[in-house]
Amino acid sequence: MRALCLTAPGGFEHLELLERAAPVLTAPDEVRIRVHAAALNRLDFWVATGAPDVPLPSTPHVVGTDAAGVVLEVGSAIHHVRPGDRVVVNPGVSCGACPSCARGEGVYCRSFGVLGEHRGGTAAEELVLPGRNVLPLQGEWSWAEAAAFPLATLTAWRMLTTRARVQPGETVLIWGIGGGVAVAALQIAKELGARVAVTSSSDSKLMQAEGLGADLILNHDSVEDVPRAVKVHFGAGVDVVVDTVGEATWPRSLRALRPGGRLVTCGATTGPIVELDIRRLFWFQWSLLGSTMGTEAEFAEIVAHGNAGRFRPPIDAIFPLAEGRAAYQRLAAGEQFGKLVLEVTP
After folding, report:
1. CA–CA separation, 232 vs 236, rounded Å?
2. 153-290 shares the fold of 2-149+312-343
3. Who contacts 21 (Cβ-Cβ below 8 Å, separation ≥6)?
4. How do the pLDDT tens digits run along the chain, 346 residues long?
5. Strands (DSSP E) found in the chain
6. Residue 2, class by beta-carbon neighbours within 10 Å (0-12 exposed, 13-18 middle, 19+ buried)?
């Protein structure tokens, strides 16, 4: 089978389309699918460029973190899907047997990993996964939409519902609109009944976000004081800040919060080390929340929403698998609004 692989860490020049042995079922609870489309996330950039805390498990390493396709074969213990079903893939894989997994909290499993990072990825013609990581698609989906849906939507869903517990009428600030998690967070926050402010350095991205329902759009390069602008517009600090940026936005995220507000983070694209005045933390009674991916139950929730037509990701561009390097270059440039998708099987 064809697969887009990293032959070495350290840069996009090591991305190559290779012939690899097709995977086979090795356990009764596994599913084999033909991948029609795979999607990229910011994590794919870090894997490809060789971030020191994202070592490759081996080389050649199949890349890609999201996928959708058609079931080819199922193990004897699988009953919720069958050959021929159109399915979407949950990229977060846990052991399925430890106490955390038994409680339905696989995100806390010490063996938890993400496709394309800790194990082979999705940018391949065939993929074998535990059956719990595959759910059927219903309704009208393009392959690109389905492939682009899982990681970003699942991450944003857990951030806003399970962790930050956004309520109707609350206010939410989302930094860096345009990326997958930020766009999904905007869609989910609006569905939850929140008022939402978004930021970007791109006026084009801000206009697209306004079209998705953003109540306040702020160019963080030209607006001198984003926290003040948010407070003026909403009449107070925000209830929730969604911060995937890290060092560059952390102080402003805290200044934007109301007393009792919540900051939820899932990323650190500008750096992982931040400062915190603990006196401000306890005086304003803020909650600082980390979040990663989501549980099987949360995955089922977002797929149900997707099957009902909600939270469909905007697609920035679709690339043939053979042009995967170009997709990564666009990802690195940061110019996209929405998701970058690889067409694996036309």
Report:
1. 7
2. no
3. 1
4. 999 999 998 889 999 999 999 999 999 999 999 999 999 999 999 999 987 667 788 899 999 999 999 999 999 999 999 999 999 999 999 999 999 999 999 999 999 999 999 999 999 999 999 999 999 999 999 999 999 999 999 999 999 999 999 999 999 999 999 999 999 999 999 999 999 999 999 999 999 999 999 999 999 999 999 999 999 999 999 999 999 999 999 999 999 999 999 999 998 888 889 999 999 999 999 999 999 999 999 999 999 999 999 999 999 999 999 999 999 999 999 889 999 999 999 8
5. 2-6, 15-19, 30-39, 61-62, 66-74, 86-89, 92-93, 113-114, 126-130, 134-136, 171-174, 195-200, 216-219, 238-243, 257-265, 287-290, 315-320, 339-343
6. middle
Contact 184, 211 (CB under 8 A): no
Q: Read off the pTM.
A: 0.96
What is the rounded CA–CA span in Å between residue 310 and residue 156? 14
**Beta carbons of 313 and 148 less than 8 angstroms apart:** yes
Q: Which amino acid is at 246?
A: G
Residue 146 DSSP class? H
Topology of the domain covering 153-290: Rossmann fold (3.40.50)
Q: How far is CA 277 from CA 226, 280, 284, in A?
A: 20, 6, 11
Instruction: Decide the pairing of beta strands 30-39 and 66-74.
Output: antiparallel
Selected from 3.90.180.10, 3.40.50.2300, 3.40.50.1100, 3.40.630.30, the CATH number assigned to the domain covering 2-149+312-343 reads 3.90.180.10
Residue type at position 280: R
Ordered by start, the domain boundaries in the chain are 2-149+312-343, 153-290
Answer left, alpha or beta for residue 178, where phi above 0 means left and psi between -120 and 50 means alpha.
Answer: left
User: Which of 309, 12, 331 lies closest to 179, judged by CA?
Assistant: 331
The SS3 assignment for 286 reads coil
Number of H helices, E strands in the chain: 11, 18
- Burial classification of residue 130, based on how many CB atoms lie within 10 Å of its CB (0-12 exposed, 13-18 middle, 19 or more buried): middle
Residue 39, strand partner residues: 66, 341
